[in-house]
Design a protein that fits this description.
The complex is a heterodimer.
Chain A lengths: L3 H8 L3 H34 L4 E6 L7 E2 L2 H7 L3 E7 L5 E2 L9 E4 L1 H7 L3 E2 L2 H9 L3 E5 H6 L7 E5 L11 E12 L9 E4 H7 L6 E2 L1 E6 L5 H11 L7 E5 H9 L5 H30 L1 H9 L4 H37 L11 H28 L2 H6 L2
Parallel strand pairs in A: 5-10, 7-9
Antiparallel strand pairs in A: 1-12, 1-13, 2-11, 3-12, 4-8, 6-9, 7-10, 8-9
Chain B lengths: L7 E14 L2 E14 L3 E5 L6 H8 L7 E6 L2 E2 L5 H11 E4 L11 H6 L9 H15 L14 H13 L5 E5 L7 H16 L4 E6 L2 H4 L4 E6 L2 E3 L5
Parallel strand pairs in B: 3-8, 3-9, 6-7, 7-8
Antiparallel strand pairs in B: 1-2, 1-4, 4-5, 9-10
Helix pairs in contact in B: 4-5, 5-6
The chains are: A alpha+beta, B alpha/beta.
């Protein structure tokens, strides 16, 4: 602590240069915050996926439907404890047709049992089971459209026609669910499959995809193979995969998000490494004589090395803290604006901690070479350069 | 040489220093012997390039002889490891430089405090030592000033305060008045003389200036790498 004054005084030596370096570090960490939030928004569902859940879809594509009768056959397979299904409804809220959110017909009990991360009040669950036209919706969408329990929700879908050829469907809102985790999806609307199947004109007895729960997550890959071989050579062959892979597959329609963000951040931090490294090297070169004085009055080589390293770390930590702090303020604000499109746009605590670790590593990496140069200075030579 | 030299604080014995410049060997000091008694104020004179600063660096443990030995208070300085040598310098040597060599980013009192950062003294104790050193050099009123706002003479006083703040065994001054006008130079010499006489500091001062060397209790002359008691003709 007693050297802190000295470290701080050295950082203040060239205020403009230090300020610009701090600014460039801060900007890099703001970008880090935004890219982390973007990655979270696009692939965040992967981390939420259950390790014990498999998703089974049509082998050709997700658009192709599967028979509803597969459910019982799947549940009979050894190692499978439950199966439930969903179907893509592809609708729009009539009053705000541009606002996207997912809707799916499901079997209420089996679906809620399969997804314990969705929290629904018992009385609302009961109401759903008692109301054929009932639907539940996530808190985020309910707040977005100012829906409350008891409302009638009109949804238009270009995919599914009712028996009377209408594409307008109406549901009774009986429940609003919350997420157990911060990044649980609370945007979707779920309604009853029995009502949907009875009311639709075509595609009866067909579903979009299945979610099955396996008894032993370690056996998931083996069970996926069993499911696929069960329906091999049928009219609707299946492709079973872990839920994480399924969600990743969705996200990969945009691109390899993790690779893209890692590449951008890699380029940014490499540049920052050069900028800060150059600042530190210049700072040390400029005061060779002063370092010689410190050594002359008794500072050891190791102490001189530590001083330069500490200076570099303080620079990186201040810049990083500034950037991460700004990101912590700005990301939620931007997330609010983007909540319709990217509901899970937030800066995860895990990434914040990674950011803090990167700050420290940046300090070490940028300080090490100037610090070694300072450590190796011969006192008599350094004093001649004063 | 006076009798006290027999119990020398500084003992430079048969020292040679050779610098290598390309394929050329430059013999700066040749079989040099010097003893300095405790409490002595020694002036070391000689023309430019005669090796005065090199000798001062060897005594201060900033450099090592090519041959021979340097002992301070009986301790072979030339045989200490880099790490131990640094600790030894912190404990035993105070340096005063021609160009003051103050850290421009620190105030006068912070500059004086620097050597104390290497001790186990508390902040309050360090503050007290710094005040004492600034009183000795008569600069308490300028304690909060940065070097750029001080005159050359005042900066050198700060340099001296930094040199004595740890109460070192030996004060080594490399042309302390070389960058000062006559009046400021005289004030610095008065101060060094007072440190020697009143505080019993052992001082070795390198100088070009006969006026400065006249203040010392003894003067030795260095020329072509060898010492003599008489000025070089």
């Amino acid at each position: 602590m007693k050297f802190l004054d000295l470290i701080w005084a050295n950082l203040k030596r060239k205020k403009l240069r230090t300020g610009l370096t701090l600014l460039s570090i801060a900007v890099a960490f703001v970008l880090f915050g935004f890219l982390s939030a973007t990655k979270q928004a696009l692939v965040g569902g992967v981390s939420l996926s259950g390790a014990n859940r498999l998703v089974v879809r049509h082998k050709v594509s997700l658009i192709q439907l599967l028979p509803a009768s597969y459910k019982e056959r799947m549940e009979r397979l050894p190692g499978v404890s439950a199966a439930t299904h969903q179907t893509w409804f592809g609708g729009r809220f009539q009053r705000e047709p541009k606002a996207f959110f997912m809707q799916c017909p499901v079997e209420p009990e089996g679906f809620l049992d399969m997804h314990p991360e969705m929290i629904l009040a018992p009385e609302q669950k009961k109401a759903w089971l008692q109301t054929r036209t009932g639907a539940i919706v996530g808190r985020m969408t309910a707040e977005r459209f100012h829906w409350k329990i008891g409302d009638k929700v009109p949804i238009f879908t270009p995919i599914w026609r009712k028996a009377d050829d209408s594409q307008n469907w109406e549901f009774d809102l009986v429940g609003i669910y919350d997420g157990k985790e911060k990044n649980t999806d609370t945007m979707s609307l779920f309604f009853r499959y029995d009502y949907f199947d009875e009311a639709r004109r075509g595609g009866k007895g067909q579903v979009g995809w299945y979610t099955i729960r396996v008894k032993d997550p370690a056996q998931a890959a083996e069970i996926a193979k069993q499911v696929d071989s069960e329906f091999e050579n049928s009219d609707a062959e299946t492709k079973a995969e872990p839920e994480a892979a399924f969600i990743q597959g969705w996200a990969k329609q945009i691109g390899n998000i993790a690779l893209i963000t890692a590449s951008i951040l890699g380029a940014v931090f490499f540049t920052i490494l050069l900028v800060t490294g150059n600042t530190m090297s210049q700072a040390v070169r400029e005061r060779t004589g002063e370092l010689g004085v410190l050594k002359a009055i008794g500072f050891t080589n190791r102490q001189v090395l530590s001083l330069v390293m500490a200076e570099s770390c303080v620079l990186a930590l201040i810049g990083g803290a500034l950037g991460l702090g700004i990101a912590c303020v700005l990301v939620p604000a931007v997330g609010k604006v983007l909540s319709n499109m990217l509901p899970m746009f937030f800066f995860p605590v895990r990434d914040l901690l990674i950011g803090a670790a990167i700050c420290f590593l940046l300090g070490l990496a940028t300080g090490i070479f100037p610090a070694l140069a300072a450590m190796r200075l011969r006192v008599a030579d350094a004093l001649r350069r004063m | 040489m006076n009798a006290e030299v027999n119990h020398a604080l500084v003992n430079v014995d048969g020292v040679e220093k050779v610098f290598h410049r390309g394929s050329e060997d430059i013999h700066v000091l040749k079989d040099l012997h010097l003893k300095v008694a405790a409490g002595e104020f020694l002036a070391l004179m000689g023309p430019s390039g005669s090796g005065k600063s090199t000798l001062l660096n060897l005594i201060g443990g900033l450099d090592r002889p090519t041959r021979g030995s340097v002992s301070i208070s009986g301790e072979r300085v030339d045989q200490l490891s880099e790490h131990r040598l640094a600790a030894w310098r912190a404990r035993h040597i105070g340096f005063v430089f021609q160009l003051y060599n103050l850290l421009p980013v620190l105030t006068a009192e912070r500059n004086v405090e620097l050597p104390l950062l290497l001790t186990h003294l508390s902040r309050a104790q360090r503050k007290k030592h710094v005040e004492t050193a600034l009183v000795v050099v008569g600069l308490t009123h300028r304690a909060k000033h940065y070097p750029r706002t001080l005159s050359g003479g005042e900066q050198q006083r700060v340099g001296i305060a930094r040199g004595i703040v740890t109460d070192p065994t030996l004060l080594l001054c490399d042309e302390p008045t070389g960058d000062l006008d006559r009046k400021s130079g005289d004030e610095i010499l008065d101060l060094l003389q007072a440190l020697n006489r009143e505080h019993k500091k052992t001082i070795i001062m390198v100088t070009h200036d006969p006026h400065a060397s006249a203040r010392a209790s003894r003067t030795v002359y260095l020329d072509k790498g060898q010492l003599s008691d008489q000025p070089v003709k």
